[in-house]
């Protein structure tokens, strides 16, 4: 399947197997008996002019008002739960007073609402989770397709919401941007996202101990921002991507910055690196790519890292979205994020990551530090959402229609826009409620770890 044919990922067919009337009755009965303990949900059905209230309004927190536009909504939600809600929203089956408030309500009541599903939905979720783990869907062909879906939509589209250097990963907010809630307390200021992303890039390079004369290996190029900053420090960079669009733009931007001679972009899988890479690198950085590896291939990933790094004075910095330890499992079923944005991705926990390193390359690295950057993601996502709303204009729309003819259908175009706005808000709520987080692990060769800390202590 090409990225062109998967731009919308047609909704799952399952909802058509069940009539909307019994689905509606079952959902309303469930919500009455078990659903909303914290907060209030009001469902207004336009077709019947009926209104249903669940829960009690919390002071300072308006009720979530959901208006049913299409009766298809009921069956989608009953049969697919999380995925069904996202598809119903994308297809315009309902409107809601606030997407963020809806997600907050769901997370606050998730233990009850997670039981709102049919036997069919449970079986499908279990099957998809087992299949993802057992089949190891991140083989070379699937990994390439996953990268196309996630990153080859269009460079012009990503420019709509990313900062100028085009980092599609969490920023790190400082006092200069008024912190992680500065956009809410003071208001967003032009250039804030760029400053925060610049801080993040240099934080990762500092953790990797990158310095002039070093050779750095980056797995997951993005659009070249980290590679270019590393080159400014005097490093030689080999950066690896599976995205044709990202490779082209990274090379273009490296040339424009005058770093063509010291940045090499490789269009290949991390499992197919050139033999000449063995033991040649001083530093290794991978920003929010590890989720695409999958537990079946963690050993290959860490073995590659060990193989590429020098035996002395070498460090690796890896960031990834993580699940809480209490919820972590190798079996992770299809959901909105995996189905529509990052196919087959797998979220580690902070501990499962460390265990996987030790299992793959025992004694080869010291876990120098684990940082939690999750608090920085909600504002990053809000900034992306604001920029997309502002910049998804006629020029970009015409470009997208030309590239993806199915978007000439206004309903498809609106579903595409809603898909992205839904994702930003969906993820924001998850990070804000600590349902998910973002960790940064720093690994170092044992001798490098000791010498680094001795130098640090001698400077105290």
Automatic annotation (TrEMBL):
GO terms for molecular function: methyltransferase activity. It holds the Pfam family CMAS. GO terms for biological process: lipid biosynthetic process; methylation. The keyword Ion transport does not apply. InterPro entries: CFA/CMAS (IPR050723), CMAS (IPR003333), SAM-dependent_MTases_sf (IPR029063). Keywords: Lipid metabolism, Methyltransferase, S-adenosyl-L-methionine, Transferase. The keyword Flavoprotein does not apply. PANTHER family: CYCLOPROPANE-FATTY-ACYL-PHOSPHOLIPID SYNTHASE (PTHR43667), FATTY ACID C-METHYL TRANSFERASE (PTHR43667:SF2). Belongs to the CFA/CMAS family. This is Putative cyclopropane fatty acid synthase. The lineage of its organism: Eukaryota, Fungi, Dikarya, Basidiomycota, Agaricomycotina. The gene is cfs3.
